[in-house]
């Protein structure tokens, strides 16, 4: 569902800005207004489908799905929640975190200043009926699951990730040995960084083992 913390209520929402999802258009201000059948997040009437019981446009759904995919990945491996600094020693985790941050920023840019009242949205959907332009499709099961929920774990994927992390750990251990044999501030700084990387890899390996045991049990 849409986060209501920063959204108000009203039968229609207006603001003067550029069109949703259109950053290449001219600079002429246009009035954005929610109307029955439009996306309740940005007001667009393009590619509307029911998403989590609300009419949402194609681009907003795509951004929401990107964030959901990152949350599922984070939950599957027991990693720190989304938000904060986008940093990770794991390329796949970094990719998910970066994509989720970009998707959230895109949603924030096109968000209407006030959310249409839920009652108005329900009435509009009811009036539209089966012949409406809005195509009702069930939300993906994973999207409605609580953040961090894991339904199934692909054992082969886990094995591949473990193999990659073990190779990374071997390289880190070699770097630590070199740093310990050296002296001076640069060597100590590198040693500290490598030890941090090792702790991160070990934590991820522990999370993967936990996920593997959960799938086996």
From TrEMBL:
Protein known as: Uncharacterized protein
Region named Disordered: 1-30, 116-147
Low complexity bias (residue ranges): 8-19, 126-147
Tree of life domain: Bacteria
